[in-house]
Amino acid sequence: MRLNNAIIIGAGPAGLTAAATCAENGMNVLVIDEYMRTGGRLLGQLYEEPDGGWWNGIEESRNLYEKAVELGVEFHLNTPVNNLENEGGVWTIYTEQEIFQTEHLLLATGAAESPIPIPGWTLPGVMSVGAAQVMTNVHRVQPGDRGIIIGVNVLSAAIAMELSLANIEVVSLALPEKNLITQESANPKEVMKSLLHVSHMAPSKFARWGSRLMKNSFMQTLGVNFYPKSGVKMWNIPVQLRKAVTEIYGDDKVEGVKLATINAKGEIVPGSEENITLDFVCIAGGLYPLAELAAVAGCPFYLVEELGGYVPLHNERMETPLQGLYVAGNITGIEGAKVAASQGRTAGLSMVCHATENQLEDEINYSMEQTSKTREEAHIQFHPEIDKGRTKILNQWKSYHLEE
Amino acid sequence: MTRRILDHPILGKMEDLDDSNYVSFQFNEVIYQGIENESLAAALLANGIRTLRYHEESGRARGIYCNIGHCYECRVTIDGRPGVRACLTPVKEGMDVVSGKPISSNEGGVSSEAE
């Protein structure tokens, strides 16, 4: 018996788009997600687009979900997946509630946030920056009255703006103290370099000046050396590349942080520590592909820094080397929701191609082109060399198949 | 203090919220109100509660960290079932939630609550 159904793990932009694509082409589709709502990380997103309109993740998620439901897609939410097994081309998916089977399985599990261990980081009131985003925009509960964000990157800059939109005071975006783990994220010059790629989001004159003039390394060093001690304001929040949090303190909850001045290399200036009173702290260590299920499935992995970490081997059609196993979205590398959705469409088409007699070569090629185009036009680039990362994994795919 | 964001400049007012949306649940034997089907972690934070459990070994207070199910820092016992993630659990009327507590050293081994 051939199973003409598709199972998709993850109800974010990639999973939802793939689900609609499979259903449009006559497949029975089941989407599984452990969260209580569909949308994944897209739910929390809220930013102004270059045309002045707002990208509202809740509305975008609702549209994708409603389209899938209209096409007959079935959803199992609040359903964590514990294990995957393959026997004779059939994938068995073990959840906490039920067991499912399919010959066409898509992993669209998205991304997780890297933590930054800092003394005091287990205190209640310390949370990942994504946690604060979800509390604020999705659950509509303030993470606190007054907080600080540790870690300056694309995600934390965007979420700082979202917190201030909701009237939550963010006293500063600062760096973590330099140690063996923090490395680049604690180095003002490295952070400055990565920030240049988001400078178009900052309306301040400084940032615009920065993006034009600070392309070369010498200017970046100069920029960091002359970086104002009070920081540069983005949406009225000081971005302090010359300040680092050395400790989060409090008895049984966050009461404040110790903030020190650092030199251009990220080293603490002795005696510069001051106490800042706060009731919450966000840690922004960046995103990495959440790929445990691909590992459980037995998919080969490669470390590609530009994609955010270890990614399962895949090609542009979103196929893995394992029969009937597909990947799409941030599990393949950290990018925005629009790219994830576009990859989801390609994955869905590939699944349809394998499951039915339909020849969809033109549609698949078009969808792959759309993904590249969406990537080029992306408003937020999580890694400046994403194209290089994509090329690396495609080259791995080629050499993997040459070896066989 | 933490507060609900009832009105938001871009997202607007919280949809159709009235008294009928609120349910009562118990956390460590105290009764609180939450919005039905919001996450337990959100309902507790809206009530000003950050400490969800005490670490099994050190006894130190712990709260939410990732808020989307990855880190397991928010695990609590719900209606007698230990190790349930508060950030993934929709709040229901009459739910009985208890914090994990440190495992006393004379018990030895690892109890089911430390899973």
Low-confidence stretches of chain B: 111-115
Question: What is the end-to-end distance of chain A?
Answer: 29 Å
- The Rg value of chain A, from CA coordinates, equals 22 Å
CATH architecture of the largest domain in chain A: 3-Layer(bba) Sandwich
Named at the architecture level, the CATH assignment of chain B is Roll
Strands of chain A, count:
22
What is the CATH homology-level superfamily of the largest domain in chain A?
Answer: FAD/NAD(P)-binding domain
CATH class of the largest domain in chain A: Alpha Beta
How many helices of chain B does DSSP assign?
Answer: 1
Strand order within the widest beta sheet of chain B:
4-3-9-7-8
- Number of domain units of chain B: 1
Explain this structure:
The complex is a heterodimer of chains A (404) and B (115). With 404 residues, chain A is of the alpha/beta class. Chain A folds into two domains: 5-112 and 287-403, 3-Layer(bba) Sandwich (FAD/NAD(P)-binding domain), CATH 3.50.50.60; 115-283, 3-Layer(bba) Sandwich (FAD/NAD(P)-binding domain). Chain A is 33% helix and 25% strand. Chain A has helices spanning 13-24, 57-70, 129-138, 154-165, 188-195, 205-213, 217-225, 292-297, 337-355, 361-376, 386-403; strands at residues 5-9, 28-32, 46-48, 54-56, 74-76, 81-87, 90-95, 99-102, 105-107, 111-113, 126-128, 146-150, 169-176, 232-234, 237-249, 256-261, 274-277, 280-283, 287-289, 301-304, 309-312, 325-327. In chain A, strands 11, 12, 13, 14, 15, 16, 17 and 18 form an eight-stranded mixed beta sheet that branches. In chain A, strands 5-2-1-9-22 form a five-stranded parallel beta sheet, covered by helices on one side. Chain A has a three-stranded antiparallel beta sheet with strand order 6-7-8. Chain A is elongated and about 70 Å long. Chain B is mainly beta and 115 residues long. Chain B has one domain: Ubiquitin-like (UB roll). Chain B has one helix spanning 40-46; strands spanning 7-8, 12-13, 22-27, 30-35, 53-54, 61-62, 75-78, 81-85, 96-98. A five-stranded mixed beta sheet of chain B has the order 4-3-9-7-8, covered by helices on one side. A two-stranded antiparallel sheet of chain B has the order 1-2. In chain B, a hairpin with a 2-residue loop joins β7 (75-78) and β8. Chain B is globular.
